[in-house]
Amino acid sequence: MEIIFRLLNIVAWLVFFALGASPEDTFNFLRIVSGVTVWEALINSPWAITVALTLYYSHFIYHRCVESQLPKFESLMKSIQTGLMAFLAFLPLRPDFDLYKNMVHQEHIKVIYLILTLKVFFWIFLLTIVVFYYLNGNKVFKKLPDLFLDLYPVLNKKDKKNISNHIP
Question: In degrees, to the nearest 5, what angle opens at C-alpha 133 toward C-alphas 126 and 22?
Answer without folding.
Answer: 30
